[in-house]
Amino acid sequence: MKLNYFLTTLISFFISSSVLAADISVSEQYVRETIPGTTISSAYMSLSNQSNKPVTLTSVSSTISKRIEMHEHIMTEEMMKMQQVDSIVINANDQVVLQPHGYHLMVFNLQQPLQADTEITMTLHFDNKENVTIKVPVQGLK
């Protein structure tokens, strides 16, 4: 009897987690190939929140780097500047696009150069304790 209760509880937990994971979707993700001689890159994607509550991206991790920061470009005194942000809010039933000249991810101290036509793995960490692991294609320099 206790085993059945345990299994039912465990299955319910996984079903609940799957529903939560379905609230956040990621699309159009890519990371830029590194410029020879550098150890930094940038990553972009679309984040969609299908839930009725705002969700906040609080951090990003990957085995390719121990330092991935969220940044934004802002216009100050008629100059475009990049600054780090602590989080990115995706409002309920809305989308945030990480793109050049807007929100984006900066990947520092890469363990190895990123080469076009390969892919990396990143994990997005949200304030609702949800983690979303994604495959991110490396896009060649244009």
Automatic annotation (TrEMBL):
Matches recorded under InterPro entries: LpqE-like, Lxx211020-like, PCuAC_sf
Record Pfam families: PCuAC
Keyword entries, A-Z: Signal
Keyword Signal among record annotations: yes
Signal sequence annotation: 1-21
Name of the protein in its database record: Copper chaperone PCu(A)C
Organism per entry: Thalassotalea fonticola
